[in-house]
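Hi P.,

Sorry for the delay on this. The queue was packed all week, but I finally got your sequence through. Input first:
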Amino acid sequence: MTLTKTATTTYPVLDLIKQRWSTRSFSDNAISKEALMTLIEAAGWMFSANNEQPWRYITAQKNTTAFDAVLQTLMPGNAAWAKNAAAFIVAVAKTDFDKEGHPANHWAEHDLGAANAALVLQATSMNIYAHLMAGFDAAKIKTVFELGDNMKPVVVIALGYKDEPEKLDEPFKSRELAPRKRKALNEIIL
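Then the structure:
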């Protein structure tokens, strides 16, 4: 039986937000190039400071050299389950503005995070699950994909269609089956 982990909320939020969660168990189904481009287009319509749109994405479908290259940058704890993803997207922040003199864009990572949220919600609407990972070697990503000094890899997103949690090894199976939880609102409202 495929696991569903819909969030229980105190206040009414969009079903799409309640349905989003970071699975580790991916099926063998491929994600098309068109679906990946749809996700990136969704990201591209997010707000950004001065309309700079400082997000850049590297896409890597399974069974490609790019996929293998991204997989080799993941920390072992992520690589153990992420190897089954259908695709990776590396989310990169362009850390300078396009304006003359190229001043630093101190909001680039914020804007990339917002774009990533749109990408993930679009994925959820397409029954594609996304798991964002900070556990990767950013220096290797920069080298392998020849990124300039103004390009900062921020997260790697594993994408795929959900599968049975029972196929995972421990400790990932237990994490997959654990109930979802978030801090109470009184813990995050200042």
